[in-house]
Structure formats: structure tokens, C-alpha cells
Amino acid sequence: MSGIKSGFQVGLRKEENEENLINDSVAGAVLAGGRSKRFGNDKRFLKIGGKTLLEISFEKIKNFKNKVIVVDRHLTDEKIEKLRSEGVQVVRDVLDYMGPAVGIYSALKITQFDGIVFVAVDMPLVPPHFVDFLVKVGYKLRTSFVATRIGRIIYPLPCYVPKSEIEDIEKSIEKKELSLKSIIENSKRKIFLGEKDIEKFGEPQIIFMNINTYEDYENIKRFFGIESG
User: Fold this and answer.
1) With contact defined as beta carbons under 8 Å apart, do 96 and 115 qualify?
2) Is residue 30 part of a domain?
3) Who contacts 117 (Cβ-Cβ below 8 Å, separation ≥6)?
4) What was the pLDDT predicted at 12?
5) Nearest alpha-carbon partner for 166 in 99, 115, 92, 95
6) Position 10 in a domain
7) Span 10-18, mean pLDDT?
8) Is the predicted pLDDT of residue 60 greater than 90, yes or no?
């Protein structure tokens, strides 16, 4: 019994050391720099169950001691200072309203970490442990992007991106190739998680729901057990 117990303890210590190493080397980031053009209002401060989408997004990366938010240049100084007071590193998009690829590039450009896992502010149904899983896959395999593909559909967010990808992303932006899906697809070292990987975290069509319209907003509220109105 003592041998079994000892082996179990060694395994726990190894896993804990690995998690600490990842936590010291990887940051969690919220992409919150979109224009909300289709929605019509600033989605970041929509509330579900008394919490804003921004607050819900930070819950997705709660296991990362290093937290980043990528915002546009029009977020008020007051809100930025509040985020900084909570220990969040605030990064402004190098180009406003040009999509998530630019937000990812903006964060990678200034980060001192080996990689960053990105979540979108308008995807409140993504489980935090799925975000953790993305990082473990990317960090262990030393890939470039880690995203999800089910059948022919690519879900570019959330995704893990190592800092080593910055040059390729920069080249795409310079050529005005701003589709994050295309950038991931063209990466030589990408890893796609599949349906079997996702199923243990929930139904893919639910996990990857995002808010583009008020109808989307009302539908997602129902998954939180909140009725419309």
C-alpha cells in the first residue's frame, strides 16, 4: 500500500509542477475590442445573471495568474484603470475593428510569456476547463495554434497561440489577410481538437455559441436559466 501511495503522490506532484510551469509561462487573454456593429451596442457590458460579458469572460481564464485584455482605443480611461487595479494587463489593438487576428497579434507583440490562450468576450458558454485543456495540448505538443474543427467547420476561438507565431500573423496582417480561420488553417504547426475532444466538455453547438444579435443574447440567457424580458 505504501508503494502505491508513494507513486500516487509522485504523480500528483508531477502534475502540480506541470500546472505551475504552464501558469508561469502562459497568459489568459480576453478579446474585447470588437465594434459590436451587428449588435448595435457595446456587448462587453451586457449582463447575464447580474454579470457582464466581460466579467464572465474573465471567469474563463480564472486559473491563469497572468491575465490580459485586448481592447479597442475607445474604452474609457476609467474602465481601463479599473481593470488595471484588478491586476489585468490592458492591451490596445494596434488597428481598431480589424478582427480577432489583430487583437491576437497586439497581445503577442507585447507579451513576455511563451504563449497566450484567447477567449472571446461574446462567447459566454465556453467552459473554463476547456480553456485549460487547450493550453495543456498546445504547451505539451509545442504546436502553433490550437483551435477546434468539427467536420468542415473551424471554430477559431477560443485558441492557444505561442509567441513564436507572431511573425506569420504579422505577415498576414500586412497582406490584409485578416481572417483568423484562414491564418490558423494555413499554419504548418496547428492542432485541431475534434468532436470527441469537445464532447467531454459539453455540446459543441452550445459551447461555441456567440452573441451577434439580441436574439442570440436572449437564447444564451436561457442556457443560464434566465428567461427573456
Assistant:
1) no
2) yes
3) 26, 27, 28, 29, 61, 64, 131, 134, 135, 138, 158, 159, 160, 161
4) 39
5) 115
6) no
7) 53
8) yes
Q: What is the CATH number of the domain that holds 127?
A: 3.90.550.10
What confidence tens digit (pLDDT) does each residue in 147-187 have?
Answer: 999 999 999 999 999 999 999 999 999 999 999 999 999 99
Q: Is residue 145 part of a domain?
A: yes
What residues make up the domain containing 49?
26-223
Domains of the chain: total: 1
In a domain, 16, yes or no: no
Q: Which three cell numbers stand for residue 124?
A: 459566454
Number of DSSP helices (H) and strands (E) in the chain, helices first: 10, 9
Q: Are 68 and 45 in contact (CB under 8 A)?
A: no
Check: CB of residue 163 under 8 Å from CB of residue 113: yes
CB atoms within 10 A of CB 219: 13
For residue 16, give every residue at least 6 positions away whose Cβ sits within 8 Å of its Cβ, in sequence order, or none: none
| DSSP, residue by residue, 116-165 | EEEEETT-TT--HHHHHHHHHHHHHHT-S-EEEEETTEEEEEEEEEEGGG
68 has pLDDT over 80: yes
pTM of the model: 0.86
User: What is the rounded distance in angstroms from the CA atom of residue 188 to the CA atom of residue 184?
Assistant: 9
Please tell me the distance from the alpha carbon of residue 9 to that of residue 52, in angstroms, as a whole number.
40
pLDDT for res 58: 92
Average pLDDT over every residue of 130-152: 90
Instruction: With H, G, I as helix, E, B as strand and everything else as coil, classify residue 28.
Output: strand
